[in-house]
Design goal:
about 550 residues, alpha/beta, about 40% helix, about 10% strand, hydrolase
């Protein structure tokens, strides 16, 4: 009996060895077939070539070839390592769920035609044969994705690395209209744009934390980038008289006050950052609409000459007169006995800083969102001609409307003001006004955009719902989220985007996909409580849509 058992055991072992050799041959044959198919039958994928970067096509071909070779090597090692798992399948522990980080999530039931044989699953041939692949449910997240989400929910700013741009700062400041930097988006430019956007977020936060502070008092701001310090607070004054219904009982005073804090002037004050950027940067930051007076000014869309009497001098040729929206010009030029106009405050401070840092390499950057983006163009127009030798002036605008006519756009170009407009595809504010509201005795004129455009799209974000509304499309935090993830036209959202989505959950929770909201809740993040405590995070100011 013992010898019979040994003989039977030996035949069993030989059978296993024989099966193992057969499976190895099967793997090698399937690998050869799959590799042959990939070289002969796989169609060439469509490549999106940007007109701004014609070399992108060649680079993508080289990248695709290298990635294919690497993937083939990895697949071979994976299939061979799965061989022992086929012969000795290991059962997971009852309390272990390796796919969802110990979260009780029910897997969707599979139909009979969706199931693949156990042998093919064990050999992992689906990675080589595309027709065996199963599309993961939209709401399923891998452990890696969840770990990435948990890091993004930390609300810790993780900007791109600070590379030195000293030798190329003119290029990043728009000297060549950002040619070759926008599509695909240069990582150094992305970092600069997100930083300027955070400056505007801090302006929103500073206003909403103390909306009724006296105009004579300078606000102490803690900026997202500590290498900058604020030098002056800025106020905008409206010339509109509000109707009686706007002063109803219970309305906060700041909602109906004529003059409101709208931004600040800051200057780079760090020797290390100055050396990295190649110059000392003077930044003028302007927030968007917040008060009733500002909303009423937004509606005054009649074009009016920038300079008084200029339309009369031109006679009938009024189309050659630079004109801007009446409401924007009112907020820029109006003043009271206690508060200087935004125009006077900006010019005084810029001249003072130019004299203070005379002899140094300087730049002037004006940044704003929504209404602030419109006022930024008026600021840049005047600053560029306020002195004989003005440093290079650039405007970075997020979600800015049209401000003036074609003559105004040409005037900015002639004064060498460089404008970069960041535009969300679904943001209607960037498309208005279209035509001037006609006045008696005046010819109806059209508005025109100025500068170059960096277009992003909410639909490209893996976090935002496809039906996100106009409020989300215009929200500043949504803009910064999209800029941080934008790689280029036709390219997927960056998988290594570092901006915290905790801010997005605070400002636009209803526009974030439910899977991310639920996972954030399971990870212990409470967007409601975080929103109530937003004062602790200087970079998370509420946009108008949030309020």
């Amino acid at each position: 009996d013992s010898s019979a058992d040994n003989s039977q055991q030996g035949r069993f072992n030989l059978g296993i060895i024989h099966s193992k050799l057969q499976i190895q041959n099967l793997i090698q044959e399937s690998m050869l077939v799959a590799m042959a198919l990939s070289h002969t039958a796989t169609p060439t994928p469509t490549r999106h070539v940007s007109p701004l970067n014609p070399n992108a096509s060649r680079n993508s071909v080289r990248t695709t070839t290298a990635s294919t070779a690497t993937a083939s090597t990895t697949c071979i090692k994976t299939h061979l390592s799965n061989l022992d798992k086929l012969l000795k399948p290991s059962q997971p522990k009852p309390d272990q769920n390796p796919t969802m980080l110990n979260m009780d999530v029910k897997k969707p039931a599979q139909n009979d035609h969706e199931k693949t044989p156990y042998l093919l699953n064990a050999l992992n041939l689906s990675s080589l044969l595309p027709f065996l692949q199963k599309t993961a449910p939209a709401d399923e997240m891998s452990p890696r994705s969840l770990r990435h989400l948990q890091r993004l929910l930390s609300d810790t700013s993780r900007p791109s690395p600070k590379n030195s741009i000293a030798s190329r700062w003119h290029m990043y400041h728009g000297q060549s209209n950002w040619f070759g930097l926008l599509d695909p988006l240069d990582e150094n430019l992305r970092r600069e744009l997100v930083r300027y956007g955070d400056f505007v977020q801090s302006a929103y936060h500073a206003f909403h934390s103390m909306p009724s502070s006296p105009a004579s008092k300078n606000r102490h701001l803690i900026l997202p980038d500590r290498s900058y310090r604020t030098t002056r607070s800025l106020y905008a004054t409206s010339s509109v008289t509000l109707p009686d219904w706007a002063h109803r009982p219970g309305t906060p005073d700041w909602v109906t006050q004529r003059s409101s804090w709208i931004g600040y002037v800051a200057v780079c004050d760090s020797d290390r950052e100055i050396a990295r950027m190649g110059r000392r940067d003077i930044t003028i930051v302007l927030r968007g609409t917040a008060t009733c007076h500002e909303w009423f000014e937004n509606l005054r869309a009649s074009l009016t000459p920038l300079e008084e009497g200029e339309e009369t001098q031109q006679g009938n040729n009024t189309s050659q007169v630079p004109k801007v929206a009446q409401g924007f010009l009112s907020l820029y030029k109006s003043a009271t006995e206690e508060v200087k106009s935004l125009s006077n405050s900006v010019i005084e401070e810029v001249k003072r800083l130019m004299e203070l840092y005379k002899g140094e390499e300087l730049s002037i950057t004006v940044v704003g969102h929504s209404l602030g983006a419109a006022l930024a163009l008026l600021v840049a127009d005047e600053v560029s001609a306020c002195a004989p030798h003005v440093p290079p002036v650039a405007v970075v605008s997020f979600g800015g409307p049209k401000v003036g006519n074609q003559a105004f756009a040409e005037r900015l170009e002639n004064r060498r003001v460089k404008v970069l407009r960041v535009v969300n595809e679904g943001d209607v504010i960037t498309r208005v006004p279209g035509l001037e509201i006609p006045r008696i005795g005046h010819v109806k004129e059209g508005y025109a955009h100025v500068g170059v455009e960096l277009k992003v799209d909410s639909k490209a974000s893996p976090c935002l719902r496809s039906d996100a509304g106009p409020a989300c499309s215009h929200d500043l935090e949504a803009y910064l989220h999209l800029v941080d993830g934008f790689a280029g036209t036709g390219q997927p959202f960056r998988s290594d985007a570092k901006r915290s989505i905790a801010r997005l959950l605070r400002h636009q929770r209803t526009s974030v996909k439910e899977i991310y909201v639920n996972r954030a809740h399971q990870l212990g993040f409470d967007s409601t409580a975080a929103a109530m405590n937003r004062a602790e995070s200087f970079g998370c100011a509420p946009s108008p849509s949030y309020r």
